[in-house]
Design brief:
95 residues; three-stranded antiparallel β-sheet; 4 helices; 63% helix; elongated
């Protein structure tokens, strides 16, 4: 699992994202920060989501509550799209 983790101090060094912002994301349960041997890590799968949240926060000035709402709405849309695909597949069976 450690190969899949990114050290936060290295990540913020090479990105425009601040540690305070990552802490806010974790407080709002949008990401998970791992602590191993006194180092803090992010899972590499979460990096694209963090970049998206950062654009919303820094470039569009959307507050954390707004980002949380957007996150939940996008998840709901994905779930509905998956359900529509499933239902279309069932309908094709009856055609």
């Amino acid at each position: 699992m450690k190969a899949e983790l990114v050290i936060i101090s290295e990540y913020i060094k090479y990105s425009d994202i601040k540690l305070d912002f990552l802490s806010l994301l974790e407080e709002n349960e949008l990401i998970h920060i791992y602590e191993i041997d006194n180092n803090r890590y992010l899972h590499h799968d979460e990096l694209p989501e963090i970049e998206k949240y950062a654009r919303l926060y820094y470039e569009l000035s959307i507050n954390m509550e707004g980002i949380d709402v957007i996150h939940h709405l996008l998840n709901h849309i994905r779930e509905m799209q998956d359900e529509m695909k499933d239902l279309k597949g069932r309908l094709k069976f009856y055609d």
